[in-house]
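not sure who needs this but someone in the group chat was asking about HTH_48 domain-containing protein from Caenorhabditis elegans so here u go. i didnt clean anything up, its just raw.
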Amino acid sequence: MEWEYLVHAVYPGAMQTLRKLLHDRYIEAANTIDFSLDCICKEFSNL
Protein backbone atom coordinates (compact mmCIF):
# COMPACT_ATOMS: atom_id res chain seq x y z
CA MET A 1 0.00 0.00 0.00
CA GLU A 2 1.89 3.02 -1.24
CA TRP A 3 -0.59 5.63 -0.03
CA GLU A 4 -0.29 4.31 3.54
CA TYR A 5 3.45 4.84 3.38
CA LEU A 6 2.86 8.32 2.00
CA VAL A 7 0.49 9.21 4.83
CA HIS A 8 2.96 7.95 7.45
CA ALA A 9 5.78 9.88 5.79
CA VAL A 10 3.91 13.17 5.35
CA TYR A 11 1.53 13.30 8.32
CA PRO A 12 4.03 13.89 11.18
CA GLY A 13 5.71 16.70 9.26
CA ALA A 14 2.37 18.27 8.43
CA MET A 15 1.25 18.14 12.07
CA GLN A 16 4.54 19.62 13.23
CA THR A 17 4.22 22.48 10.73
CA LEU A 18 0.62 23.10 11.75
CA ARG A 19 1.57 23.10 15.43
CA LYS A 20 4.37 25.58 14.80
CA LEU A 21 2.08 27.88 12.80
CA LEU A 22 -0.55 27.80 15.53
CA HIS A 23 2.11 28.37 18.19
CA ASP A 24 3.55 31.37 16.32
CA ARG A 25 0.07 32.79 15.80
CA TYR A 26 -0.78 32.28 19.47
CA ILE A 27 2.36 34.10 20.61
CA GLU A 28 1.62 36.91 18.15
CA ALA A 29 -1.92 37.23 19.50
CA ALA A 30 -0.75 37.10 23.12
CA ASN A 31 1.81 39.84 22.46
CA THR A 32 -0.84 41.98 20.76
CA ILE A 33 -3.19 41.54 23.72
CA ASP A 34 -0.41 42.40 26.19
CA PHE A 35 0.45 45.48 24.15
CA SER A 36 -3.20 46.58 24.04
CA LEU A 37 -3.63 46.11 27.79
CA ASP A 38 -0.43 48.06 28.38
CA CYS A 39 -1.74 50.95 26.26
CA ILE A 40 -5.09 50.92 28.06
CA CYS A 41 -3.37 51.01 31.46
CA LYS A 42 -1.19 53.94 30.37
CA GLU A 43 -4.23 55.83 29.11
CA PHE A 44 -6.00 55.38 32.44
CA SER A 45 -2.97 56.43 34.45
CA ASN A 46 -2.81 59.66 32.41
CA LEU A 47 -6.35 60.67 33.41
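also The chain has a mean pLDDT of 82. if thats useful
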